[in-house]
Structure to design on (206 residues):
């Protein structure tokens, strides 16, 4: 009787220690479906369609903000990686999701921080809904079919409590891109990122 009681106690402890099925099986916190067909205004004159990304071997969505210090500090790294991987079929896209950010403001921000890749406006947060992104500075890596391969931090320069180190030890985006370009799966599908909260997606009718 005592042994049976002990076994139930152990089982109860294990149940408490496993917070959810998602955590148990490591399911990534983003949809499995491809990014839907969407159209965005861009800092350039012509709108950008999400279907355009099918011609890329890999697409990297970089969530930006006019005044998020974390994302702005990463600007040189965004630029370096976009130039490094461009010849291998990787395209970076900057995404502004603040509802009040104008095309002129986004263009000025890109010029100030020397962002060399296209920048789109997503005032309704369609890409937030489609990717599950939570903070500015997150990156979302898409395969050629617009399914998500990775979402999360660019590297471990920032810890989740906001502390920073001069040089990162883990370069998650680099590892993801290198794996995909070698026709392999990324080492991990998600790494939580520290940054400024993204706005709540709003209805298209507003």
């Amino acid at each position: 009787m005592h042994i049976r009681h002990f076994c139930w106690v152990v089982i109860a402890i294990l149940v408490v220690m496993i917070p959810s099925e998602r955590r148990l099986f490591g399911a990534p916190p983003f949809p499995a479906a491809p990014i839907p067909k969407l159209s965005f205004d861009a800092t350039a004159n012509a709108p950008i369609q999400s279907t355009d990304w099918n011609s890329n071997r890999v697409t990297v969505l970089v969530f930006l903000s006019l005044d998020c210090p974390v994302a702005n500090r990463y600007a040189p790294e965004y630029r370096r990686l976009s130039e490094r991987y461009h010849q291998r079929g990787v395209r970076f896209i900057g995404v502004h999701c603040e509802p009040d950010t104008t095309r002129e403001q986004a263009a000025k921000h890109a010029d100030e921080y020397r962002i060399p890749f296209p920048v789109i406006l997503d005032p309704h947060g369609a890409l937030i809904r489609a990717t599950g992104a939570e903070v500015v500075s997150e990156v979302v890596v898409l395969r050629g079919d617009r399914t998500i391969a990775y979402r999360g931090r660019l590297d471990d320069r920032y810890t989740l409590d906001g502390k920073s180190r001069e040089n990162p030890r883990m370069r998650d985006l680099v590892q993801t891109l290198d794996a995909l370009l070698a026709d392999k799966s990324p080492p991990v599908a998600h790494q939580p990122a520290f940054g400024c909260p993204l706005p709540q997606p709003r209805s298209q009718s507003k």
Observations:
- The radius of gyration is 19 Å.
- Residues 56-201 form a domain with the Glutaredoxin fold (CATH 3.40.30.10).
